[in-house]
Amino acid sequence: MKTGWVVAAFAALVVLLGVGLTLNPREVPSPLVGKAAPGFELPLLHAPEKTFSQKDMLGKAWVLNVWASWCPPCLVEHPVVTALAQSGLAPVVGLNYKDRREDALPWLKKHGDPYRFSVQDAAGRIGIDYGVYGVPETYVIDRRGTIRYKHIGPLTPEVSRGKLQPLLQELSREG
Amino acid sequence: MRASLVALLLLAGAAMAQSDPAMDKRVAALAVELRCLVCQNQTLADSNAALAVDLRNQIREQLEKGASEQDVIDFMVARYGDFVLYKPPFKASTLALWLGPFVLLALGVWALLRQIARRRVPSPELSAAERDRAARLLE
Known about the structure:
The complex is a heterodimer.
Chain A: H1 2-22, E1 41-43, E2 51-53, E3 62-67, H2 72-87, E4 92-97, H3 101-111, E5 117-121, H4 125-129, E6 137-141, E7 147-152, H5 157-173
Parallel strand pairs in A: 3-4, 4-5
Antiparallel strand pairs in A: 1-2, 3-6, 6-7
Chain B: H1 2-18, H2 21-31, H3 50-64, H4 69-80, H5 95-119, H6 128-138
Helix pairs in contact in B: 2-3
């Protein structure tokens, strides 16, 4: 009877810790999901004399992908981002984060440019507003300008097919 | 050479004079309360990750603009969630975190008391005959 209790308590502890081990401590739940995408007006990477604001996208769902030429995982997700952009489900805009133009442009030339266009956040200030802490990060923003989904770290084909694309399809049905 | 050295020292002196110790203190006090998101077991004060440096500058910038400590904390929580706080807030989702240890302590004390109560050997009751015999033996 008594050993039964001890075994049960031990088993409960094992289950609790076991569940804890399967959680990813890097996946910090973003408080931004469900909130309006923070405002910005940033120069375009390819044409710094022009600017882009998140307001320019009101009326359609889009994807904001934070990348940098100094970020190896960005290269890992590059084919997935390319496939997502080619699916035509939504425009993919790049946020070139804390990078230099002279590094970013050759990177795109070498590996291919999946983005509709990229904007430059050289100081990383807009990154802070978006709660960026581990490049790459990917945001889905709906036509009202609300952040609907955030993915931290490299996009995997599973996440892209299993979460991003269904969400984008749903958003396009919304109108 | 010497002239440039003197100029450098003067510049350094000017830069030091500009930093305000009271402000440094406030920035440092906030930085130890906030988690560095990149290296998760360090505070913003301990970490030299690029993001930590940016966020420390952000703290200073906001305080200099007249923001209160709470304003800065709210700014960080709005972007990174409760996770940036080294001291998580007391609310429904953190009840187990805050109260769990006390519940476990109470359970432990209860189990211990029960164990002690069980082990206590009842003092032997002597019958009248045994009492007589003991008295005789003691004489």
